[in-house]
Amino acid sequence: MLSRLTRPQVLAVCALPFAGLVASAVFAPLPFSVAYPGTTADVLGAYKGTPVITISGAPSRDTTGQLRMTTIVATGPDAHVSLGDVIDGWFKTDQAVMPRDSVYPSGESTKEIERHNTEQMKKSQDAATEAALAYLDRDDENIKVTLKLADVGGPSAGLLFSLGIIDKLDGDGSGGDLTGGRTVAGTGTIDAQGRVGAVGGVALKTQAARRDGATVFLVPKDECSEAKAELPKGLRLIPVTTLQGAVDSLVALETGKGSVPAC
């Protein structure tokens, strides 16, 4: 068959299956998720009409400024992500392409993932409360802290929850606000001993923070490099490893006394 065709005709015929392979590669689903900057929420205020932090058993302060926890949004575990989506994501600063298994545990359904994230959020809230009350040396008092953040899961708001509790109970320790009236954002897990852990997605979270008015961003120290890679203009990074360090940095920033670490 091919011996009877002219050279241009042969090339045209051979090009058809190649084009088909390319098209299949471009549109075939790949094991990746595409992530974007998500919502932020001021833990000192309300989210979707409900106060994020409610304290009983002790007087709480009226605060100024904001402490905004940050999120990312990723395509779901069943979403169709093609080669075109992956290539597009690699060239955009407001997107990140990640292996799906690094975002969603392999083999789990959407409902199982939602349940897991809800459990992680609850553990994070408990640890944040314990760390904040221990920092204030008030863990033996009858203080009840209720944390509510509808439709947000995972442990990455732990640091901001602890800071919010401290600001509402004690401020900067000298009558002022821990935020100094600024819009401060950040991310980081926390354990009951006040140790801050890495979370991932910080480059996207800094963009969400700046979009929503933050001028300061608290980042787990181990993720400084990632945060600096796509840092929005006008956003100052402060690396943290502990709750104590985060509070000290914010107080130094507010008072102008002492050094404020930088990435």
TrEMBL record:
Comp. bias regions, Basic and acidic residues: 109-123
Residue ranges annotated for the Lon proteolytic domain, each copy included: 153-243
Keywords noted in UniProt: Signal
Record has Signal as a keyword: yes
SUPFAM superfamilies on file: Ribosomal protein S5 domain 2-like
Signal is among the record's keywords: yes
GO biological process: proteolysis
Pfam families documented for this protein: Lon_C
Signal peptide interval: 1-28
Location of the region described as Disordered in the Swiss-Prot/TrEMBL record: 101-123
GO molecular function: ATP-dependent peptidase activity; serine-type endopeptidase activity
Superkingdom field: Bacteria
Name of the featured protein: Lon proteolytic domain-containing protein
